[in-house]
Protein 1
Amino acid sequence: MFSFFKKKTATPDAAPAAPATPAEQPAPRDAAAAPLAIEEPAAKQSWISRLKAGLSKTSANLSVLFVGAKIDDDLYEELEAALLMSDAGIDATQYLLDALKKRVKEDKLLDAAAVKAALKTLLIELLTPLQRPFELGRHQPMVMMISGVNGAGKTTTIGKLAKHMQANGQSVLLAAGDTFRAAAREQLMVWGQRNNVTVISQESGDPAAVSFDAVQSAKARGINVVMIDTAGRLPTQLHLMEELKKVKRVIGKGLEGAPHETLLVIDGNTGQNALTQVKAFDDALQLTGLVITKLDGTAKGGVLAAIARVRPVPVYFIGIGEKIEDLQPFNAVDFVDALLG
């Protein structure tokens, strides 16, 4: 089992958990201080293999450039084209090319394998600041507001995160605040049933009111984590983005300092549009983290480099498929190894 989260020792003044029904039973008070599970080598190797398969398209396009190549302008031009095709964007591509040329000159690199190794190092250096552990136990309850455009895999991601949190000794409550999309409430209810987690919802409720009720319910029941599903918005729908801001304000009225995490789920296949989404949602909500989904075959992966250069919001998790174990913490070294082979 992967060490999915970092845990912080519970504060001494944490409120005791109130009695709850079996489906809502909170974790013991010392759950946040429990030791993390140790990664199993076989499980990690399986994950890395699947990640490599998911990024194989970009990996093939980049790796082939260094096979018997001469270190000349033609190589740099081909590398520029490959990076742009991988969705790295103009800014990150130019940064990587300039840094690579400088390193080749300073280190007097003469063969293609050494240049490829230098590029891997530069990519790791670029992406490492995005790598940050998701820390549990900082607040009681910890409130998470989760956004994303329709189709990004937001509700499915919430279900997976809830399962992983339960495996780390956390009690979870979900809020069906996505009243904008048809069947979103029902989809979240299904995940709640799978994980034996309570879902706060209203048939035609105001998303801000649903979110407020969920926070109050979690406080009363001693729940560790509240995950609020908010409606998928396109950055161009400004009136809908304003509603998301309202939801965030109302959550803060329900619990001072909340939401403690404001996450955006983005589809790894959407290329530079993903960067546009990060900018828009960050401007509106001040994002604390990202979840990149669907890195499973057609995704190019380079958009993480673009995010790192233009809007370096931490990437907490990446996903490569539909299974629970297909969502794992972002690791820059593993990602670059999969991207460059």
Protein 2
Amino acid sequence: MDLSNNISGKIIVITGASGGLGETTARHLASKGAHVVLGARREELLKKVADEINADGKGKAVYSKTDVTKKEEVKALVDKAVKEFGKIDVMINNAGLMAIAPLSETKVDEWDQMIDVNIKGVLYGIAAALPIFQKQESGHFINLSSVAGVKVFSPGGTVYSGTKYAVRAISDGLRHEVGGNIRTTTLEPGAIDSELKFGSSHKESSEFVKEFYQQAIPADAIARTIAFVIEQPSDVDVNEIVIRPTKQEF
């Protein structure tokens, strides 16, 4: 079966799309003819990405300034997709924060931020898109967890890992509850070159993370993986993929 055109014309919403994995994925999917709806907090960067995609002429892009910790803004992003294109085919819950520090540092504000972005942000994306998917009787959630959601990232990654384990659990439960015409994929990236590595305010942990990420592979590894799962026929649900550098032991 030729799946090469199974992305063209699809309406794909992406959070965290102003840089890193989200931006790279948006550009890659648009190059295959997708219409992408971009959400992030940095509006000037969103506009730049959307303008360049539209100038390329292969796909289409619109954007909406979106803070995934605010459910009304996530809903507005999804509503914009429906208003502009009439439907949604894929919801990519990509926005994430990795603030690494030992628990003994008690960086409670950063714990709260990671819970709000990494867990509640995904839930808000599900809440916004699920009613539309159910009405359409079709749709595809792609939720970004992490290798740290498979094994606790140590030292300093306990809370981050907790949030990413939660994404896996939520995704698995979602698949059980609404599977059939609605697909759910969880991706667990390892060290991928993105802005995620800059999220730590704890000096020693930040240095450790930057050293760890020297083995990182380019963000287009994730973009190509996302394209692969979207391309599959509607009766194929790719549930979970772990992807990391060949050099990464953890």
